[in-house]
Each structure stands twice: as C-alpha cells, then as structure tokens.
Amino acid sequence: MLDVLRNIVLEVNTAESLDEILGIIVSRVRAAMGTEVCSVYIRGRGESRYVFRATEGLNSAQVGKASLALGEGLVGLVAQREEPVNLEDAALHPNFQFFPDIGEEPFYAFLGVPIIHQRDVLGVLVVQQAERRRFDDSDEAFLVTMSAQLAGVIAHARVTGEVKDASSPPSDMVWTRISGVPGAPGIGIGRAVVISPAADLYAVPRQLSDDRRGELRAFKHALSQVRTDIESVAENLRDKLSPEDLALFDVYLGILDDSTIGGEVAALIKGGQWAQGALAQVMIEHIRHFEAMEHTYLRERAVDVKDLGERVLGYLQADERENREFPHDTILVAEELTASMLGEIPRNRLAGLVSVRGSGNSHVAILARAMGIPTVMGAVDLPYTRLSNLSLVVDGYNGNVHLNPTPAIVSRFREIADQDRSLNKDLEGLRGLPCVTLDDRRLALWVNTGLMADVARSLERGAEGVGLYRTEVPFLMRERFPSEEEQRQIYREQLEAFAPHPVTMRTLDVGGDKALPYFPIEEANPFLGWRGIRVTLDHPEILLAQVRAMLKASEGLNNLRIMLPMVSNIPELDEALALVHRSHREIAEEGIDVPLPPIGVMVEVPSAVYQARALARRVDFLSVGSNDLTQYLLAVDRNNARVSDLYHAFHPAVLEALDQVAQAGRAEDVLVSICGELAGNPMGAVLLLAMGYDVLSMNATSLPRVKHVLRSITAKDAQQVLEDVRLLDSGQEIQAHMNEFMRSRELQQMVPAPVDPYS
Ligand code: PEP
Ligand code: MG
C-alpha cells in the first residue's frame, strides 16, 4: 500500500494544475481501492461551498455544477465534522441529499474523508460502491492517509489554480495574493528574478525565451561538457573496471543522445522554452517514469537519470550566472533565500525579497532588515518556479506577495511606500541626538552588522557602537574558510569604520540555519545540534585563528569587544575563555601589543538564563540573543513558517527571562545588553528600558524609530507599562496592550505595520 501511496503522491507532485491533480487523484484512488466511484469536492478560495470538482464513476458533466454548503448533504457533513463518514447505505442517512443528474443512484456504500490543510477544510474525498457494506478500517485508514498527504499539494494548487499550464506566459496570471510571514518591513515593487538552488531540477523556474538559437546552443554546449566529464571518468577507470562495467558509461551517455532525451529537450527549446526549463521538464518526466516502475533495478535507474539531468543543469546555470543581468527593480525570489544570494546582486538593484522557506527570524530575514530590503518569508504557496519577470508587490509589513497586481493596487502600495520614505526622512534629524528619555535616562543604541554595506547605513543612522558583528556573514560569502590574514583585514575594516565606538565581534556562529557551503553539517535537529561555540570548541584551530585575527585587527584602535555565542554551560565558557587568553598570549609572543578586550557571553539558551549570574562572574558583559532564546524557550523553530504564529517575542515567559538576565547582570555589576531583534522593536525597546538594559543593539533600519520612541517617553512610563504587562497571561494580550500604549502616546506610526489595504 505504501508503494501505491508513494506513486500517487509522486504523480500528483509533478502535475501542472489543480484539475490535473484532481483527475489523477480520482482515477488512482479508485483503482487502488477497487471502488466504483471516487470524487473530490473542493471549496474555492474565499468561497463557502464545496464544489463537485472531479469524479471517476459519477456523471462528469455535473463537474463544476453541483455544490454543497458546510453541513449540507453527506459531503457537507464530513466537512463540518472534520472527520470521516462511513456508511453502508448513504441514502438512509438523514443528511443524504439527492442530486438528480449526478448519477449516484446505484451506489449504496459511502466513505468521505475531509481534506484538511493547516486547520482549514479544503474539500472532501469520497469513494462509493454499489454493494451495501461498510468500508473496512484499512480502507478508511488508506483514504485518510491519502487525504493528509495530498492536502498540501491541493492547497498550493488551489492558490495558483489560475495558472493553466507551465508554458503560459506568467503575465496571464490574474492578480493573486499569496500570504507568507513578514521578513523585513517595507513595500517593494518590481519584477521577479527567480534564483534556483544549484542543480535542482525541481526548482527550475519556468520561462519562455525569444532567443531559441542561443538557448539551443547553450544546451548543446552543456551536453558536450557533461559528455567530456563522463568520458574522462570512464578513461580514468579503464584499467580498474571490466569491459561490461565500462559499457555502462556508454549507456549513460546514450541517455543524452539526440534520439532520446537530448532530442526531446531540443524540441521543447525549439517550441520556445528556455533551456533549463525544457531540460527540467523532460528529465522530471523520465525520472517519474522510472520511479513508477515495478522492477527494482529499473526503478533505481531514476537516480542515474536525475544525476545526468543535474549535471547538465549545473553547466547551464554556470553559463547563466556569467551572463546574468539584474533589472533595477529586482525582486529576488527563491525557494530558500540565503545570505550569499543577497551578495550576488548590487543593493541598488534590489527592490524586495521573497523566500518560500524560512521565517521572520531566519538569518536571511535579519540581514534583509539590516539592509532595509522589504522581505516576505515562508510564502509556502508561491508558485515560484513560474514567476520569472512577473510584476510583484512585496508587502513586508503584512507578509504578503501580490502577483501581477493591477495598476490601482500598485499605486496604493506606492502611496504606503512614499509615507514610509517621508517618515524616515523626518527621523533623520535624530541622528546626532543622544537616546535619552524625557526624565533623563540614557540608553546606548548600537547596531548589528555583518555585511560591509551595513557600516554606511549604521553610521548614517547615528549608531554609537556595534553590539553584534556577525562574523559568520563574511564566512558565508566565501568558498573556503578565510585565512587569518584575510580575517584580520575584514575585521580591521569594521573596527576602523566605527572607531572610536566599540565593536562587538562574535566568534563564528555557524550551524542551525547558517551552513557554510564548504563545511556542511547534516543533522536531524540542527538548532539543537552542533552550533556556535560547540563547533568552535571542537575546532580550536578555527577559534584561535579567528580571535588572533580580531586582536591583530584592533591594534592601535582598542575598540574591540569579543562575544561568545550559544554557551549553554559554564565549562564551555571556561574553555572558550582559555582559548581567547591563549590567542592573546600568542600574538603577544609575535610582538603585537594589544590590551585584552572586554569579553562577553551571549544568553540565548534557557540554561544560560538560569545561570546568568555564574556566567556574569566570568565575563565583562552579558548580551541576550533573544532570537534564539525565544525559539528555545517556546520550542518554536525560528526558521519554520508553519509555527511562526507561535514565535511570540512578547510571550510572558520570554519577558520574564529577559528580566531575570537584567537582574543577574546588575547583581554581578556587569553591563547588560541585548542584540536580538526585540531590541529593534520600538515596543520591545520600551520594556527593555524598564528592565534596565544598558545597551540595545539592533538593525540599523530600526534605530531611528526606537530612538524617537524612547526620547518621547519617561523611564517611569516604561516602568508602569512593564508592571501592567506583567499581569497579562499571553503574548497576544501583551502585544495588544503595547499597541494601546503606543497609540496613547501618539507613537503608533513608529511601529512599522500598516494595515493591508487588500485584506
Ligand atoms: C540571537 O539569537 O538573538 C542573536 C542575536 O543571534 P543570531 O540571530 O545571529 O542567532
Ligand atoms: Mg543566536
């Protein structure tokens, strides 16, 4: 049964439209269960009725005509109860509703299961049989499993159902709004440029090309490069393999011949598809064909076909990268945006970012906020492979992407963007002013950096220091570990740019959602695995070289601070401190004389909150990484859009932990700062002021708004509001209370969340 399920899911996954998907489901499920009827009822987006959308066994002329409301008929009953209904004789049930032309009369047995996606009943899957009998438990279990597996695909296709087939030009798509989660605030208006991950056939964007000859040439060139590669592998193995084994290479090469796959791809290119799309379409079709074969040996050949396809695609992509030009209003779209993708495009050409995966606290979203690029993350229903060159609006406030918006929609969003710009302009006057409350409480506002581009933005916005320099960012942009000298130069630039202000350099924090391309870490639970200090303690050579580079870079400037990430116990901190001291001794032996900088520890896992005093006794400062602390306290993956509603920075448990850390720091007389995103939330900043944080370190974009808010209130106000929210039991209530506080002080404009005009 598992095989049957797998094959149906595979087939459905490569279908091009909702109708095709439903057609596959009804015919395959009917065959697999040996029933006489299988039908699907689907509720359209924004509609309330369940429409008879596909059938095998009933009157297909009624498809699209018959429909039922929630609770109406047996189908409506399944939808309402959100569980299967299994009946021996459907017509005897009080809910049974007779549709004259649908052709149900001969069928007695009825089994309907709901199709549920993210708590939403999208439709009902029904099988029927002439025999008077109850479907047995295994039938019911099969249909429930099928429905659960297909719900995501159906939801996705329902959203994008307007696209009839892959080769139709994207401009045929009617205006569609796809929801994701807010990544970075702001409105981006522009054209989609889809970046696909290297050599992934399933992620290739569909697009047409005017240059058929050029595309054909590129394809032939890529083919010949793959041929050469394979021939040279065969040549190298000539002495080691038997003639029969060597003959396999010829078979392999034969797959790409003009008479087989090569010819099919060329035909699609001549029909107007671009080479990568044509290749992907043909290869996926063949892979599917092999995967569905009964014979194990043949089924396993799917892997060879896939490998060949990926090799050819790799060459086509390399060719494209060399010749690629980005429009001035590029909206970069990817299945999974990465920091290095951001680096591929000049900042002044980037109008927005959209990622199908990830969430608001993914690292790429944090970088986007620092760079001020409107971003939507977790747009899981986005048909991203079909968007090349499509007009888009990225609403980074509400987390929505508008595909092919009408001129009226574009102009409404332009107004919002203009208001945004003028507010930022008004705040420019704050640049040289200190962050001091109306009753004279002084707070240091620092910035988080990583890219060189952050430096200018930070200084423009009046940053008084760097509370977090993410050293992993320059590591992510490379193809190998940077040498000690390369690191020294990179760090020197940062330290010089901000001198005499302090710059807090965090030691390498990789793992989790930050994988170095040249140092892959494969783990089932990356956020609970080998991350941050755990990696660098296991590789002291990396930590020692990095700290030496930092110390050398600070020569003569003396504005360096060093910070250790992801510490979860005291021995880790002691070990790391010993390595920092050792680096310091080593550079002194080289004759470089720099004072030992202040050393701090990040509080970003719950154990560090409980041990904050013991940590504080060993260091010069504590800095809360509230992004990770929130994910670990609430057990919510910061990178997973599906649970992003549960990631609540104002959760009472998070606020309690933040308060405890501040108290621990005060008790041990060390400076307490915070460098998670909460610091850049104007409402979060009010609460942090009340808790007694000394330094708030945030993305440069947020700094002027936070400064304006803190300069507009008294520390006493903040204290009162903190006391009030302490009495509340949920993040939602606290959020609402804080919104009200902002409104009462006429500061709501500083909270970047305009209402979606099209919700
Ligand atoms: C944090 O976890 O809050 C933090 C600042 O570190 P990062 O976001 O880089 O994990
Ligand atoms: Mg962190």
Entry keywords:
Glucose Oxidase, domain 1; Beta-Lactamase; Enzyme I, Chain A, domain 2; binds phosphoenolpyruvate; about 750 residues; binds magnesium ion; 4 domains; alpha/beta
Catalogue the unreliable spans: 162-169
- Secondary-structure content class: alpha/beta
Distinct compounds present: phosphoenolpyruvate, magnesium ion
Q: What does the largest sheet look like? A: 8 strands, mixed
* Number of H- or I-type helical stretches: 26
Task: Please indicate the count of domains.
Answer: 4
Whole-number radius of gyration? 30 Å
The CATH architecture name of the largest domain reads Alpha-Beta Barrel
Shape: globular
Number of strands: 22
What is the level 1 CATH name of the largest domain? Alpha Beta
Question: Distance between the terminal alpha carbons, to the nearest Å?
Answer: 43 Å
Main-sheet strand order equals 7-14-13-9-10-11-12-8
User: Helical proportion?
Assistant: 40-55%
Arithmetic mean pLDDT: 90
What does this structure look like?
The chain has 759 residues and is of the alpha/beta class. It folds into four domains: 2-155, GAF domain (Beta-Lactamase, 2-Layer Sandwich); 176-196 and 323-407, Glucose Oxidase, domain 1 (3-Layer(bba) Sandwich); 201-317, PtsI, HPr-binding domain (Enzyme I, Chain A, domain 2, Orthogonal Bundle), CATH 1.10.274.10; 434-750, TIM Barrel (Alpha-Beta Barrel). The chain is 45% helix and 15% strand. It is built from 26 helices and 22 strands. Strands 7-14-13-9-10-11-12-8 form an eight-stranded mixed sheet. Helix 23 (682-691) links the parallel strand 21 (671-674) and strand 22. The chain is globular, with a radius of gyration of 30 Å. The protein starts with a helix and ends in a 15-residue tail after the last helix. 46% of the residues are buried. The protein binds phosphoenolpyruvate and magnesium ion. Magnesium ion binds next to helix 21.
